[in-house]
Predict the structure.
Amino acid sequence: MTHAVVTEDSLTGALDRLVDRVRGAEFAVVLSPDGLPLGGSRQVQAKLAEEISGIVAGLLALGLAATRTCDAGELRQIVVQMSRAFLFVATISNGTILTVRISGDEVEVGDMAYEVALFVGQAERHLPIRLETAAAARSGDSGAQRRLG
């Protein structure tokens, strides 16, 4: 069993700051490797977190299939461009997944891509735990050397 060493409030605060730094950012959610919501910015209610979890699971499956087919290394980020919004999905080295949505006429996509990369690079400050998938826990794999991809 994994015990968090950060509080939900500190993760929420980190995600709030991420959303606050980029014009058009609406919400941010961090999911476990199994897709369970670990925390979200202030705009995220339980229903939205569950919906995002399902969407991200599908996107990650496609992204991981692409990495296997293209043999181009680990999956790092998926960006979905819609007519009125962008959804950024980034893998974090400890197995967690960051998802951020931005929308509006004056969105700063480059700024958000930078902020997502910065958050992922500093994730150990916000998520200083090594999470593992339920399948790995059952098989006895510690997950210490495993990354998404």
